[in-house]
Design brief:
Helix content: 25-40%
Structural class: alpha+beta
Bound molecules: guanosine-5'-monophosphate, zinc ion
Number of strands: 5
Strand content: 15-25%
Largest sheet: 5 strands, antiparallel
């Protein structure tokens, strides 16, 4: 399967790894939108958060625990951060291997654009 994030899991595509768990990987977004912009992914291929939630809810919970640990690592757990799952074309999902964006380190507008 030709999946960019599966290739980051195998090491075929390089990434700046922030944290590695047994079943998850966190790495810096190549085009950061905030001082902290990290993607947390399951190592297993799931196309969307909805499909992951149905297939393996504990793995989704693990991703969210890892998202918080990324915020702790980057020193933004107390100032605040946002976790975003773009799902589907109108939300701007471009990589169909589910990923949580962890954003923070600056004031974040609400609602997002
Ligand atoms: P989406 O738009 O699907 O929610 O998010 C995909 C994210 O993956 C984008 O923020 C984009 O910058 C990031 N991205 C795309 N290609 C690469 C890559 O090769 N390496 C890394 N680290 N991030 C990538
Ligand atoms: Zn994949």
């Amino acid at each position: 399967m030709d999946c960019l994030f599966c290739k980051i899991v195998t090491g075929d595509v390089p990434a700046k790894i922030v944290r590695e768990g047994a079943r998850t990987l966190a790495f810096r977004d190549i085009n950061p939108q905030a001082p902290t912009h990290v993607l947390v992914i399951p190592k297993d291929h799931h196309v969307s958060v909805a499909e992951l939630a149905a297939a393996d809810p504990e793995l989704l919970a693990e991703m969210l625990r890892e998202a918080h640990e990324v915020a702790v690592t980057d020193g933004i757990a107390d100032t605040g951060y946002r976790v975003v799952f773009n799902t589907g074309p109108q939300a701007g999902q471009t990589v169909f291997h589910t990923h949580a964006h962890v954003l923070g380190g600056r004031g974040l507008n609400w609602p997002p654009g």
